[in-house]
């Protein structure tokens, strides 16, 4: 949701440009600030950022995205397993066109993953189907001794320029993975799913792309860290994976897509209902991030306005009716500027509403206004401790 000022918006960010009366009303009752969710020397991925929001020491627990998605999918990993995210992407004339194969449907992508397993899978190589373009790859006894590039970081780049590169002299795992990418292109190019997609004017999912490798992490639960129970609501396996390690209850809402057309109302209701059973509900909505990856500021503004009147309004009104006081925090995990179409390390704006505390002088919520807030600039677990009062 966080972004940079844009000329097309009169030097405003999408957040500044959006009509957000409910968020701003909550801001006036809250205390605001900014949070560093990703250390400068770590990749600004959603896995690092969301663990950072939840107060985990990311330098100690970060093991890549794949292991978190494995946990979400119920895939048990051995300590020697190397787990990686594998995207279905679109390559056009040798150029990595997009990271999502035009946001391919889950039904279509599962057919492609099945074909890849049939052609490439064996006792040490396994693909696991996920949601839309996001899938899991597990390599038995694989060595995490290579560098790989997230596909959403390099749209418009020749894919061969950003293939996996070994970090040392041994390129065994690197060669295996790059070979799988090339072989996948042969298998997927004329797959019936892609023939239909091309006939319909859609981007084909004609390549796989490996990134974010890691081994099984050592993470304490939220109860062990902060003495609190929790639940998580999302459309993204990665977020459910973090929730699994955190010991959260996983709540799936029908119609959750991870895009602008997600079931906002269903998610908001599920979050409020879950508060009857747990101390903390982590409600994650992906739509603004995907709009940023597309470089579409108009769509990003729309998703922020959807958040305002389809989520925040309901949550504020319904929690006010509860017998117990309910604290509310509102925060992006990281910026995804439309101009860059990828994540950045910039601190993110946040608000924390506690019914028993007066708000500060911030009257509207955006990347600049919150800098004058009560909290200033926070890092580490300072945000989550302020929310939980621990």
Number of helices: 14
Could you state the CATH homologous superfamily of the largest domain? Alkaline Phosphatase, subunit A
Shape: globular
Helix content: 25-40%
Task: Classify the fold: give the CATH topology of the largest domain.
Answer: Alkaline Phosphatase, subunit A
Q: What CATH architecture label of the largest domain applies?
A: 3-Layer(aba) Sandwich
Tally of discrete structural domains:
2
Range of strand content: 15-25%
Mean pLDDT: 95
Q: Structural class of the helices, strands and pairings?
A: alpha+beta
> How many beta strands in the DSSP annotation?
15
Q: Which runs of at least 5 residues are low in confidence (pLDDT < 50)?
A: none
CATH domain class of the largest domain: Alpha Beta
Helix-strand topology string: HHEHHHEEHEEEEEHHEHEHEHEHHEEEH
Our Rg estimate from Cα atoms comes to: 21 Å
State the end-to-end distance: 27 Å
Please outline what is shown here.
The chain is of the alpha+beta class and 390 residues long.
What order do the helices and strands come in, and which of them pair?
Blueprint: H1 14-17, H2 21-28, E1 31-35, H3 46-53, H4 58-61, H5 65-73, E2 81-92, E3 95-98, H6 106-120, E4 125-131, E5 134-140, E6 146-147, E7 157-158, E8 165-166, H7 172-188, H8 192-199, E9 207-214, H9 222-226, E10 230-233, H10 237-246, E11 249-251, H11 264-274, E12 280-283, H12 287-293, H13 297-319, E13 328-330, E14 348-353, E15 376-378, H14 382-388
Parallel strand pairs: 1-15, 10-11, 10-12
Antiparallel strand pairs: 1-14, 2-3, 2-5, 2-9, 3-7, 4-5, 6-8, 13-14
């Amino acid at each position: 949701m966080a972004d940079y000022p844009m000329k097309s918006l009169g030097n405003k960010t999408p957040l500044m440009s959006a009509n957000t009366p409910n968020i701003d009303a909550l801001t006036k009752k809250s205390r605001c600030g900014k949070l560093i969710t990703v250390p400068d020397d770590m990749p600004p991925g959603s896995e690092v950022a969301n663990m950072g929001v939840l107060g985990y020491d990311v330098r100690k627990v970060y093991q890549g995205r794949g292991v978190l998605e494995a946990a979400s999918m119920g895939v048990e990993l051995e300590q020697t397993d190397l787990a990686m995210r594998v995207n279905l992407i679109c390559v056009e004339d040798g150029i990595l066109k997009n990271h999502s194969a035009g946001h391919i449907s889950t039904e279509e992508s599962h057919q492609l993953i099945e074909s890849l397993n049939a052609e490439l899978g064996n006792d040490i190589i396994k693909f696991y189907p996920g949601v839309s373009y996001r899938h899991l790859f597990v390599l038995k006894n694989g060595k995490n001794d290579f560098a790989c590039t997230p596909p959403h970081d390099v749209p418009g780049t020749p894919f061969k320029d950003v293939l996996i590169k070994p970090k040392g002299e041994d390129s065994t795992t690197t060669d295996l993975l790059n070979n799988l990418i090339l072989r996948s292109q042969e298998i997927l190019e004329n797959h019936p799913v892609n023939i239909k997609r091309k006939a319909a004017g859609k981007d084909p999912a004609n390549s796989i792309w490996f990134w974010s490798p890691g081994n099984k992490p050592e993470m304490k639960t939220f109860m062990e860290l902060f003495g609190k129970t929790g639940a998580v609501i999302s459309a993204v396996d990665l977020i459910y994976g973090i929730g699994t390690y955190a010991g959260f209850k996983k709540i799936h809402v029908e119609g959750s897509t991870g895009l602008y057309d997600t079931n906002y109302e269903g998610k908001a209701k599920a979050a409020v209902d879950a508060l009857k059973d747990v101390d903390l509900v982590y409600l994650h909505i992906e739509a603004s991030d995907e709009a940023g990856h597309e470089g579409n500021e108009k769509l990003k503004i729309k998703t922020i306005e959807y958040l305002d009147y389809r989520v925040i309004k309901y949550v504020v009104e319904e929690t006010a009716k509860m017998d117990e006081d309910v604290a509310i925090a509102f925060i992006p995990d990281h910026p995804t500027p439309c101009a860059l179409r990828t994540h950045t390390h910039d601190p993110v704006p946040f608000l924390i509403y506690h019914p028993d505390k007066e708000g500060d002088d911030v009257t509207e919520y955006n990347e600049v206004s919150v800098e004058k807030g009560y909290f200033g600039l926070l890092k580490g677990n300072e945000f989550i401790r302020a929310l939980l009062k621990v």
